[in-house]
Amino acid sequence: MLYYFASMTLRLCTMTLSRSLLAFCLALPAVAAAHEQHAHEHGVGRLDIAIEGRVVDIVLAGPGHNFVGFEHAAQTAAEREALAATRASLQDGAALFGGLAACKVSVEVDAPDGDHDHDHDHDHDHDHGHAKDAHAHGAADAKTAHGDEDHHDHDDHGHTDWEATYRFECPDAIPPSLALGVFKAFPQTTELRWQAVTPSGQSGGVATPAQTTLQLP
């Protein structure tokens, strides 16, 4: 499960390579080890944010239970519909992260059962485009570090983890705070342990359904 956290932060590093974020990336192995003991706790997820200029990279991850309510392979029509609905909700970055509605967003979702949805671009200003190459390289590097992508979704105890990666390219300055819609979209998520890094500093904390606003550094 150490790979689970490390892969998220690796993606952020490969997507944001400026000198100002280098120290953060170099510290990730120690951070990943510190969070290993908290891996796969139902209701608890992780949110990693990196901001540079007018670009925001976000990784949202957690046990499948947090998002779809179960972690076994979908066996019924209702469960398959629930999986499809969950993926659709994860694709709606503007709803999950309030304050970024004007930005063009590309989304990549790693889901169980071998499903891997990526390169979905949404432009809320109707200026359709392609995600930056760095986004694709980040996913490729994370896969290389793991060696076998299928193991990312399933661990030895039958647990499944979901991960969604977002890149927001914004026309204006990034707001000083984000309003999370994650708890409304996925009620079984009860806690998000988040960290954010920008050229001006780092911050982090715990978001809950009662505290959904993140103050960015």
Index terms:
single chain, 217 residues, alpha+beta, 7-stranded mixed β-sheet, 3-stranded antiparallel β-sheet, 9 helices, 34% helix, 30% strand, disordered N terminus
Walk me through this protein's architecture.
By secondary structure, the protein is an alpha+beta fold. The chain has one domain. The protein is 34% helix and 30% strand. The protein has nine helices and ten strands. It has helices at residues 2-15, 22-26, 28-35, 64-68, 77-91, 93-96, 133-146, 150-153, 182-185, and strands spanning 44-52, 55-63, 97-98, 104-110, 116-123, 161-169, 177-180, 191-198, 201-207, 213-215. The strands form two sheets. It has a seven-stranded mixed beta sheet, sandwiched between helices. A three-stranded antiparallel beta sheet has the order 3-7-10. A hairpin with a 2-residue loop joins strand 8 (191-198) and strand 9 (201-207). Helix 1 packs antiparallel against helix 7. The longest helix has 15 residues, at 77-91. The chain is globular and about 45 Å long. 39% of the residues are buried. Mean pLDDT is 75; it is low at 1-8, 29-37 and 124-157. This is DUF2796 domain-containing protein. It comes from Verticiella sediminum.
